[in-house]
Design a protein that fits this description.
Butyryl-CoA Dehydrogenase, subunit A, domain 3; 497 residues; binds flavin-adenine dinucleotide; 13% strand
Length: 497
């Protein structure tokens, strides 16, 4: 199985990543990507070591593969898949959202539902075969795929066909014998600069006038004409591991993808100008539920990590003996346990779909996702409350611990009972990277939006998957059990009694 070093060696392939107005010469060496590429390499090493229990025999390729990419065909498969995802998430403490298991999971859903990728009537190309072969490559090569599946935020008042200016959203400019030529942009491929491939499609509903934008394909990160416009890397501002323990390791850059008339060969096209198929690929294959269950597994690991930091802060500051603080830690525990419980409930309520794939229970999964835009900020708020000014009463950098002018004061004034100053400073610097650094702010935005804006997650996913129809039946039956006339008679009887 692919090792971390093999992954790192593959990154210098001429991909076009743009930072500060210039093309990055080599992402394998550029310091802005050092933290995340090292972390991803570590993930591959973990998977490659049989001792970590992340390998299985994949029937699709009849060879050993990474469990995080598996198609669950039994409750045991689903449990094994979660454990493997958790193994990776524990390595990053949940701070890498688009690790290779995220989009890889979507392809497990896609490939096990080839019928969804049949072309429109009259289009006999083997799109389903393309999806299957791409998934087999993910299994065989342990591929790191990210995705850009949201139209650029040009205007939300209409879809792309209503925008002024052609091909702002990525769409088909022309068709050739070799494939589709695409132009435009799509947001927001997290991790793009250090991935192998980018999957591009549109999860937002499109109308009949948007046919040219209704596509789905994957291309290698090094494709000529495919550009990645990177947001400001926070890693570059992380002066040291000690000062920014999370930023320095886990800054996965978010990029706007731009396509300058890129030829997408036919064998890489999954959906060809078919608005109906866009939603079906996510929702009729179970890919959306499986992929977001992976995301909740990661989130649970991250929330436990944050809760533990909060607990330790209270211990160091000696506030944990106050009932008020115990109540706050209790609320934190309640929130985190609720997320974990929903994750496990989704596993327990999983059912096989028509193709025999075990899909996590959608009520529990989308229910907890519907609350995420409130639960994550609440968890951060509790930690923010507990640290007080301690995250600003911090030396300017690790160098203050050693400077001739500062070392003695730092050792004396930054300590807590039982916690020497270095330990205390380390903890509070970590807390700041969770609640206050630019990396922390981006994470709050990520957790609130990665699965869609809250109005979509609540209004579409949680609302539609709750099972209101079934409950309405129960209410209707209850209401039918009494009527107005009978009610008057009954109350008259009661008065007589
Ligand atoms: C850090 C980060 C990483 C991301 N990584 C990825 C990634 O790897 N791949 C990827 O494809 N995407 C990624 N995304 C994009 C993410 O999927 C989108 O942010 C999300 O789908 C919401 O779309 P939007 O940002 O365009 O928000 P919009 O749809 O523009 O919504 C923004 C706000 O406008 C209001 N609004 C807009 N439309 C309506 C409406 N119809 N009704 C009511 N209110 C409305 C709401 O207040 C909403 O919260 C990432 C986002 C973030 C923040």
């Amino acid at each position: 199985m692919r090792t971390g070093q093999e992954y790192l060696d593959s990154l210098n392939d001429g991909r076009t990543v743009i930072l500060d107005g210039e093309v990055v010469e080599n992402v394998a060496e550029h310091p802005a990507f050092a933290g995340i590429r090292t972390t991803v390499a570590e993930l591959f090493d973990i998977a490659a070591d049989p001792a970590n229990g992340m390998q299985y025999r994949a029937p699709e390729i009849d060879a050993s593969a990474n469990l995080v990419f598996s198609v669950p065909r039994s409750p045991e498969d689903l449990a094994a898949r979660r454990r493997a995802v958790e193994r990776w998430a524990k390595h990053t403490h949940g701070w890498v959202g688009r690790s290779p298991d995220h989009v890889g999971t979507f392809f497990a859903g896609f490939a096990s539902h080839p019928e969804v990728f049949a072309g429109e009537e009259g289009d006999d190309r083997d799109y389903a075969g393309n999806v299957r072969r791409f998934y087999e490559r993910i299994l065989r090569e342990n591929l790191y795929v990210t995705y850009a599946i949201i139209p650029p935020q040009v205007s939300r008042a209409t879809t792309a066909s209503g925008w002024e200016g052609e091909f702002l959203q990525v769409g088909v400019v022309r068709e050739t014998e070799e494939g589709l030529v695409v132009r435009g942009s799509q947001m927001l491929a997290t991790g793009g600069p250090v991935t192998d491939e980018v999957f591009v499609t549109c999860i937002k509903p499109l109308g009949p006038d948007d046919r040219d934008f209704a596509i789905s394909f994957a291309m290698p990160a090094s494709t000529p004409g495919m550009k990645m416009y990177c947001r400001r890397p926070y890693h570059s501002t992380a002066t040291s591991d000690f000062d920014y323990p999370l930023t320095s390791r886990y800054d996965e850059h978010d990029v706007l993808m731009v396509f300058d008339d890129v030829l997408v060969p036919w064998d890489r096209v999954f959906i060809n100008r078919n608005p109906q198929a866009l939603g079906r690929q996510f929702f009729e294959t179970g890919a959306h539920a499986l992929g977001n269950w992976q995301a909740q597994t990661r989130l649970t690991v991250k929330l436990k990590f944050i809760a533990a930091v909060a607990r330790k802060v209270a211990q160091v500051n000696g506030t944990d003996k106050f009932p008020g603080v115990q109540e706050k830690l209790g609320e934190l525990a309640a929130v985190v346990s609720t997320v974990e419980s929903a994750l496990l409930a989704a596993q327990v309520t999983a059912e096989p779909d028509a193709n025999g794939v075990y899909i996590p229970g959608r009520r529990a999964l989308y229910g907890i996702m519907g609350l995420q835009s409130e639960t994550y900020p609440r968890v951060i708020q509790i930690l923010r409350d507990l640290v007080g000014g301690g995250v600003t009463q911090l030396p300017s950098s690790v160098k203050d611990l050693y400077g001739e002018a500062s070392a003695a004061d730092v050792a004396r004034y930054y300590q807590s009972p039982g916690f020497p100053s270095e330990e205390r400073i380390k903890l509070f610097k970590l807390a700041w990277d969770i609640i206050g650094s630019e990396f922390a702010g981006r994470h709050q935005q990520y957790e609130m939006f990665y699965a869609g804006a809250p109005f979509v997650v609540k209004g579409a996913y949680a609302y539609r998957n709750f099972g209101y129809d079934e409950l309405l039946g129960e209410i209707d039956e209850f209401l039918a059990g009494y009527g107005s006339r009978a009610s008057i008679d009954a109350s008259a009887d009661r008065r007589e009694i």
